[in-house]
Automatic annotation (TrEMBL):
Pfam families assigned to the protein according to its UniProt record, in alphabetical order: Peptidase_S9
PANTHER family (alphabetical): PEPTIDASE S9 PROLYL OLIGOPEPTIDASE CATALYTIC DOMAIN-CONTAINING PROTEIN, UNNAMED PRODUCT-RELATED
Protein name: Peptidase S9 prolyl oligopeptidase catalytic domain-containing protein
Domain Peptidase S9 prolyl oligopeptidase catalytic: 471-599
Source organism: Pisolithus microcarpus 441
UniProt entry tagged with the keyword Signal: yes
Alphabetic keyword roster: Signal
GO molecular function (one): serine-type peptidase activity
Gene3D superfamilies: alpha/beta hydrolase
């Protein structure tokens, strides 16, 4: 029970109903129980909100014998109750209730989705459309505050019983998340979720703020310390220019923009310059990080005695969004925030502290990463000579270390301590956006490479004593990874082979579909095989085994514990065998450490790891590090050829200087064979392949899967028709929350009403939410010769099919209206149930079957992907448009 100081109470019932299902229909048939039917059972939550759900009567051993881990994966639907008790003084006129009702502050750990419903006996329940909120399924540590509006006002029931609401939780038992039951000594799988609910009231109305105000917690914006980011100060200098202050809105209806940042008056820090990168507008209940740059003159240093900075943020209400009744009363407010400063000493050969550095990812997203400095400088690069062009170093290439799932590199020092400090090479530990990120794909891979580039710039622009430790910003790297990071090492090395000079991959899995097979997916019993093939093209870019031809010339050390109960040891063995199939002489060494578990502290500190790194870094007449200038490797020269495998051009780099820029049939995987004959290129399809230095863009190519929306070069923009449309605004806020939670990606919310033209939508990727019927957007689709049109009350695709049935989610990619490198994702729907379906299909996690365009109907609730009514990958027309692709499209 949670009690508010004003007398409000919220009580969460500890009794939960649950049933076992495999995405079953409302009649609850299930293949897991012996009766082939799921029945409601009951469990009791702990006082801490922890809910354990198991089904001992299911013959799990029998299922495991034939189906393995796939047989353990299932879904539980949980039903519980919460009651809100308002104080008797809360009785106010009906028309004023909406803005004054409290929010529910909800934390759902290890659960996929939840919704709050009015009581089944209430009048509101009859017309209510459930709004599904994403859970913190990975239990990540820096989750934003999640505020949920009550579906009905609690003020109508002032009695002792309060107002009752129904809570529905979708809890999926995933092996990646919970593991093999034997790992926690159970004969059956146990779903372990936790739910807590508190009340939070919106800030006071704007008119109560009066003139310029300072400080108290009733301000419409509050500091969110867990989202603030600062670099370490090394010898009095910031190790990175980026600082971020986390803010969240407590205003239920007001929109606020941070317009200025400055230090409070202090003589000891008046030489510090803070510069706001760009104004940051924060929507009601949204959390954003305010980015600003810290600058010190060359001869200025911050004393170790200065352990904090007091920063004042000027916040202005957005005039065009303010409620009319309050417009004349609104004033700026100033929020004072204290930022702690962490000082570390300059590293030496014998002593060091892991360093936290920062940079601006995707133009303005403040991002931190961790570093282990080398023992000795390699050589002082001639920065003046190499500025603006490639500068090649040999022997001090940094190690790019990719952590496993759930590892927080900023608060868990063991990851940095497990890596052997190098003589000349930096160890760069990127976050990959968050503890899980996108499995080191997409924005996670971009963060990894960007962290290396950022370190080069920090050393180059830092004090003179830092510069001798520098390296070229375009350097190759040695990839090291464990578990999910081991998989990421295979992934990154095989997609950008020219950027990698060696790989140490430990306990990595091949791909998600092999980690836990999809053999028991419910939709496989109903889906058209061709539709399944079209949908699975969206997974092809992640299938590491298909791209191993690109690693034939890369030195690799593959490691795995022989008693690993998390990632099966055969995954690494299989990767080795596939690579050896491409070339028996491939430079790969495999070592299986008998009897060792998934993780053991010395896995990267063994003699074999040191010997591998020494071989990579040691100078020799023929440098062991592969470079473009080396040309084709020895193994390829012996064969007279090499094979470059590509699925999505914009998600792949070059190999030996050659890069695939376009595919004539997007959606089909391409392999290109270069013969020893000059310019003799053979492939499985027509293509455009060019030397890396050629600047022909790949940006106009179709992206091939909706997941591309996550790879943005600037903060995303969420576009809705009007701020007065509460369902669309709620949807945008939920997408913004998911982007922040899972990928630490920033997003602004704007409306069509405030745009003069689509040139005002920003430079980042664009999510268009329910705007397709508006004239401005229709004109955009027409001008770009889009395959999609809205006419006669229905969405039409390429004049081939109309979609206007109930509960439809219609999702498709389009080129950005103004930025060639950016992408737009349309989320359209035929009714509010379709809107909720589109939100649940938003590709926030890996393994989502979603090509360039997809239409899903209500039948998907029973048969999964077999409820798709159309899906496909675009082709690129002769005019450069994204057009219908008959080879990789399907209609019901």
């Amino acid at each position: 029970m949670s009690t508010d100081p004003h007398g409000w109470r919220v009580e969460l019932d500890r009794q939960w109903d649950c049933f076992l299902t495999r995405y079953s229909s409302p009649t609850y048939p299930s293949s897991l129980p012996r009766s082939a039917r799921a029945l409601w059972t009951r469990t009791t939550a702990g006082i801490d909100g922890r809910i354990l759900v198991s089904h001992p009567s299911v013959p799990w051993d029998q299922i495991r014998t034939t189906e393995g881990w796939a047989g353990f994966q299932h879904v539980n639907m949980l039903r519980g109750w919460l009651t809100v008790h308002p104080p008797r003084s809360a009785c106010i006129p009906e028309d004023d209730r909406a803005d004054l009702d409290p929010f529910l502050r909800v934390k759902l750990l290890r659960g996929a989705f939840f919704t709050i419903l009015p009581s089944p006996t209430s009048t509101e329940r009859k017309e209510h459309i459930p709004q599904w909120h994403i859970g913190n399924v990975y239990a990540m540590s820096r989750a934003p505050v999640q505020l949920v509006k009550l579906p009905a006002s609690p003020r109508g029931n002032m009695g002792e019983g309060g107002t009752k609401y129904e809570v529905i939780i979708c809890g999926a038992y995933e092996i990646r998340l919970f593991g093999d039951p034997s790992s926690y000594k159970s004969p059956y799988p146990i779903l372990d979720v936790a739910l807590s609910v508190e009340l939070e009231f919106p800030s006071a109305p704007l008119r109560s703020l009066g003139p310029l105000s300072h400080g108290p917690p009733t301000l419409p914006l509050q500091h969110s310390p867990e989202h603030s980011i600062t670099p370490h100060f090394v010898g009095g200098k910031p190790f990175g220019e980026a600082i971020g202050i986390g803010l969240r809105s407590t205003d239920s209806g007001g929109w606020w923009t941070v317009t200025d940042v400055r230090l409070s008056t202090n003589s000891s820090t008046n030489f510090i310059i803070l510069t706001l990168l760009e104004p940051i507008r924060i929507a009601p209940t949204q959390t954003r990080i305010v980015p600003f740059r810290i600058t010190l003159a060359d001869n200025e240093y911050i004393s170790e005695k200065v352990t904090k900075l007091v920063v004042e943020l000027t916040c202005s209400p957005s005039a065009h969004i303010v409620r009319p009744s309050e417009a004349t009363h609104v004033k700026n407010v100033v929020l004072s925030v204290t930022i702690p400063l962490d000082h570390v000493c300059l590293w030496t050969q014998d002593n060091y502290t892991p360093i936290r550095a920062t940079y601006f990812f995707a133009r303005s997203m403040v991002t931190a990463f961790t570093l282990v400095p080398p023992k000795l400088p390699f050589a002082r690069p001639d920065y003046d000579a190499c500025a603006g062009r490639e500068f090649e170093c040999t022997g001090n290439e940094p190690i790019l270390a990719l952590h496993g799932a759930g590892v927080d590199i900023l608060s868990q020092p063991w990851w940095a301590n497990s890596l052997p400090r190098q003589k000349h090479g930096w160890i760069v530990m990127s976050q990959g956006r968050t503890e899980w990120g996108l499995d080191w794909h997409g924005p996670s891979a971009a963060d990894a490479f960007s962290s290396v580039t950022a370190l080069s710039h920090i050393l180059f622009h830092g004090p003179l004593e830092w510069r001798k430790w520098g390296f070229n910003a375009n350097t190759r790297v040695v990839l090291v990874g464990h578990s999910n990071g081991g998989q990421g090492a295979w992934y990154i090395a095989a997609r950008w082979p020219d950027r990698v000079c060696g790989v140490i991959a430990a306990a990595g899995y091949i791909k998600s579909q092999a980690y836990v097979p999809w053999s028991l997916d419910r939709f496989s019993h109903f889906v058209d095989p061709f539709l399944r093939a079209v949908l699975e093209t969206s997974l092809t870019p992640d299938d590491n085994d298909l791209f191993l031809s690109n690693l034939v010339g890369t030195p690799i050390l593959a490691l795995h514990g022989g008693a690993d109960d998390n990632v099966p040891t055969w995954h690494t063995r299989e990767l080795v065998v596939v690579l050896k199939t491409w070339d028996r002489d491939a430079e790969i060494t495999y070592y299986e450490d008998s009897g060792r578990p998934h993780w053991y502290p010395e896995i990267f500190k063994s003699d074999r790891v040191r010997a591998f790194l020494d071989r990579l870094y040691s100078p020799s007449p023929v440098p062991p590090l592969r470079r473009i200038s080396d040309g084709i490797p020895a193994s390829a020269r012996r064969q007279g050829r090499f094979t470059l495998t590509v699925a999505v051009p914009h998600e792949s780099g070059s190999m030996y200087g050659w890069r695939v820029c376009a595919l004539s049939t997007p959606g089909l995987m391409m392999r290109y064979l270069e013969s020893k004959e000059p310019y003799c290129l053979q492939g499985t399809d027509h293509h455009q392949i060019l030397p890396e230095q050629n600047t022909d863009p790949v940006t106009l190519q179709p992206r091939q899967r909706l997941q591309a929306i996550l790879s943005s070069t600037a903060p995303l923009t969420l576009l809705i028709p009007s701020f007065s449309l509460q369902y669309e605004l709620s949807a945008a806020l939920r997408i913004s929350y998911a982007l922040r939670l899972y990928h630490s990606l920033d997003a602004q919310i704007i409306s069509l009403e405030e745009l003069n033209s689509l040139t005002d939508v920003g430079e980042g990727n664009l999510v268009v939410l329910g705007c397709g019927r508006e004239s401005l957007v229709q004109a955009w689709l027409e001008q770009t010769r889009s395959a999609w049109r809205f006419k006669d009350g229905a969405w039409c695709f390429s004049e081939r099919r109309k979609f206007n049935g109930p509960s439809l989610a219609i999702m498709f990619l389009q080129p950005h209206p103004t930025i060639p490198a950016a992408t737009s994702l349309f989320l359209e729907f035929t009714d509010l149930n379709g809107l909720e379906r589109a939100l649940r299909l938003f590709p926030i996690r890996t393994g989502v079957l979603s090509p360039d365009w997809i239409v899903v109907g209500g039948r998907a609730d029973e048969v999964g992907a077999a409820g798709v009514e159309g899906a496909g990958v675009y082709a690129r027309s002769c005019h450069g448009d994204w057009a219908y692709n008959g080879q990789v499209s399907w209609f019901d």
